[in-house]
Amino acid sequence: MDAVKIYFDTMGCAKNLADSEYALGGLVSAGFALTEDPFEAQIVVVNTCGFINDAKQESIERILELAELKEQGELLLLVATGCLTQRYGEELAMEMPEIDLLLGTEDYAELPYLLWEKLAEQAGKRRPKKLPPACGRVQLTPPYTAYLKIAEGCNNHCTFCAIPNIRGPLHSRPMDELLAEAAEMKAAGVKELCLIAQDTTAYGQDLAGRPLLAELLREMDKLGFAMLRVLYAYPEGINDELLAVMRDCKTFCHYLDIPMQHVSQPVVSRMNRRLGRAGIETLLAKIREYLPDAAIRTTFMVGFPGETDEDFAELLDFAAEAELDWAGVFQYSQEEDTPAADMPDQVDEDVKARRYNQLMAVLADGSARRREQLVGKCLPVILEQPSLDFPRYFEARSQYHAPEVDGVVYLENTDERFGEQHIGSIVLAEICEAAAYDLIAVPVK
Fold it and tell me: Of 151, 162, 165, 418, which cross-links 422 as Cys (Cβ 3.0–4.6 Å)?
């Protein structure tokens, strides 16, 4: 009998992608065959996102879109898992009969057995024996870059965020386990390792009563990756010890992803966060003391309940002065079962949209100025793919560009020096021009 083909569709963030990789590892071990074509799959799994309303709607629409394959293809089972199903499992079960199996965020290890059980039930056969625990992973990213989730859950309890309700409290993975997995990735050819968690700076707090990210970085540095990157570092968790280790680690990318959310103290306090504008400005000065060339990415939220014109004006003023490299802006989403959802003075949607556009324009100007400062510098870049938009160029990234979320370096390739066989290679590039969000470079010969 041919292996049952399974198609996995991952929505949302890199943390969800990491979950999918571990789930796929278990499925392959259990005898399932993976396919990138949903039309030839007997099982489709949608790993959903439930963070904000737009993400929830996108996940629901994707489930309904794939449900149509039951009439068009070979589809036997439509499975939904992830944050949305963890949060709204009962409602989805009642409202979406198209879904054959609903699982939460803690069911990935059981997925192979549950699928075999469901298939046996459909075929009227005996249920299978219990399978051994799932192990291993299937890398979904390009072979040269990978994500390693170092912790699950979060203890911060920001009033706008449902993640602690969905994923639970902080649960850090043992350091020896992480180092062993990272070493396997290195041996498999990974050159860029991105450490991720909901709050990477809290890593180890539950294991040792204090954060252990600095120690983890020291050990990871010894593995010799070309690029070691930390994403989602909460501002409150960045201290001198951590910055000193980041400075001293030879492989650490001088890049920090720090979700600031807001700087007006009244808004920050209602968000149940601690650092207002003065604290954030002190932190940025300290980062640039230790890592003068560091690229800083952040996210801001506009339209939080009670955000006044004065609050927003302070955020705009900060954004104009901070010279941030990369920034994303969210319009506040009123999430059920969060304290902010019941706060008075909810902001009108049109006001949120106007503030979003204003803030994005200011941030774009500051970001462009930061890129201009790189013109004339020589940077190691990792080659990703020949550019589809500009055939004379190869797309690449430097240490200042995280995968997928930031701009790219367009590396001149007029002499066809680089081809498909060079994907994942690291070369030296001289930045010769700064575009709106990207950099243009020539290879250093």
Answer: 418
What would the pLDDT profile of 157-188 be if each residue is shown by its tens digit? 899 988 888 888 999 999 999 999 999 999 99
- Mean residue pLDDT across the chain: 89
Instruction: Calculate the alpha carbon distances from 284 to 233, 292, 327, 411 in Å.
Output: 13, 10, 14, 30
- DSSP line for 3-34: PPEEEEEE-S-HHHHHHHHHHHHHHHHTT-EE
What residues contact residue 123 under an 8 Å CB cut-off, 6+ apart? none
Q: What is the CATH number of the domain that holds 171?
A: 3.80.30.20
**Which residue(s) pair with 409 in the sheet?**
396, 439
* pTM score of the predicted model: 0.89
* Domain match, 112 and 225 both: no
Q: How deeply is 237 buried, as exposed, middle or buried, from its count of CB atoms within 10 A (0-12, 13-18, 19+)?
A: middle
- Write out the DSSP string of 117-143: HHHHHHHT-PPPPPPPPP------S-T
**What is the chain's Cα-based Rg?**
23
In terms of phi and psi (left: phi > 0; alpha: psi -120 to 50; beta: otherwise), the region of 117 is: alpha
Round to whole Å and give the CA distance between 427 and 445: 10
Q: Which residue shows structure tokens 């790219």?
A: 408
Instruction: Order across the sheet with 5-10: list the strands.
Output: 33-34, 5-10, 43-48, 77-82, 101-102
Kindly tell me the number of DSSP H helices and DSSP E strands found in the chain.
Answer: 14, 18
Instruction: Report in angstroms the alpha-carbon separations of 189 from 52, 218, 272, 369, 388.
Output: 35, 21, 42, 35, 25
Tell whether 130 is covered by a domain: no
CATH of the domain at 109: 3.40.50.12160
347 and 223, same structural domain?
yes
Distances (CA, A) of 58 to 9, 54, 90, 130, 383: 12, 6, 19, 34, 31
Indicate whether 305 and 422 sit together in one domain.
no
pLDDT digits (tens, 9 = 90+) for 393-413: 999 999 999 998 898 999 999
Amino acid at 272: N
- How far apart CA 427 and CA 422 sit, in angstroms, is 10
- Packing angle of the helix pair 83-95, 53-67 (nearest 10 deg): 60
Element (H, E) at 200: none
- For residue 98, is it within any domain? yes
pLDDT digits (tens, 9 = 90+) for 369-394: 999 999 999 999 999 999 988 889 99
> Both 230 and 332 in a single domain?
yes
CA distance linking residue 54 with residue 392, whole number of Å: 37
Q: Is 367 in the same domain as 347?
A: yes
Is 133 domain-assigned?
A: no
* Together in a domain, 364 and 382: no
Domain extent for 365: 145-372
